[in-house]
Input
Amino acid sequence: MLMTEIAASLSDADLLAAYAAGDMSAAQVLSARLLPRVMGQAVRMLGDRSEAEDVAQDAMIRLWQNAARWRTGEAQVSTWLYRVVSNLCIDRLRRRARNVPLESVADPADERPDVVTDMQAKTRLMALSEALAQMPERQAQAVALRHLEGLSNPEIATIMDISVRSVESLTARGKRALAALLAPRRKELGYDDA
Output
């Protein structure tokens, strides 16, 4: 059996392999490491803590069921688990949508922007894309994941395979670089207060 202190220093894949070999302490360490992230993702997607707990439990069960078949190096355990959680949440959201009576759904408002607003939004998006392309790749990736995709720093850290502190640093430097690149175009992009 792995000692909990030693197990805590192992990678997710190593812990999963140890669990597959019968080491229950590895499962405890891996659960303690992954379950809070899984739960956070499910709560954000579903907006219901009770449902999120069910999804997190289902996702972890699937992880344990696939432990013996896990092939190290093909994917990160956490990335695979995030995908499972996402799929489980989407399934639940679809079931919710199917169970809503038609009479309770309000007619959708026409939320299309006017032509000028639409053109300005496209110009801003193009300027943002151009500015991101000029930035160092890791900074641009961190900024896009955080501020365009809305992911949390721990999620970004998992995706980029870096520490949360590194994500914070990359995001902060990226935002400053982005602001400097876009500053000369403030008026053109409709951000000039004067």
